[in-house]
Specification:
Elements (H helix, E strand, L loop, with lengths): L2 E5 L6 E5 L17 E2 L1 H9 L6 E3 L9 H11 L4 E2 L5 E3 L2 H10 L21
Bound molecules: zinc ion.
Zinc ion binds next to loops.
């Protein structure tokens, strides 16, 4: 069920409601004025389900390998950095795919609805 966000222009209070569709009118309980829908807040609420950017220990390196890993990223042109523990900081699926190609891996997880390798039955 989606979350709809509202803001009161009189007092600045925010309100969130979870419903199947946005309520037509919502009043501020403090000011009794109609609330304005806050699309920006809704967007950041939806973004909570978006995994990018993400951190990955699986694609990380040991701290001693960080300079080498950064140099590899620079040479192969993918935008992945590493924190001081060697955890990979990946900005997007596209950059992750570039990285995986550069290190010779394949992202079996890359697309929802893709045929899982080894299960394709043919037409
Ligand atoms: Zn108010």
């Amino acid at each position: 069920m989606p979350t709809y966000c509202y803001v009161c222009d009189a007092c600045g209070r925010h309100r969130e409601v979870r419903r199947n569709s946005p309520p037509r009118r919502l009043r501020c309980p403090h000011c009794a004025v109609n609330l304005r829908r806050d699309f920006r807040a809704e967007h950041s609420t939806m973004r909570a389900g978006n995994p990018w950017p993400r951190r990955s220990q699986a694609l990380g390196v040991s701290p001693a390998q960080i300079p080498e890993a950064r140099e590899h990223a620079r040479r192969h042109g993918y935008q992945v950095d590493f924190d001081e523990l060697g955890t990979a900081l990946i900005p997007s699926r596209a950059e992750q795919n570039k990285m995986l190609r550069a290190i010779g891996f394949c992202d079996y997880d890359a697309g929802y609805g893709d045929v899982t390798p080894g299960t394709y039955q043919g037409d």
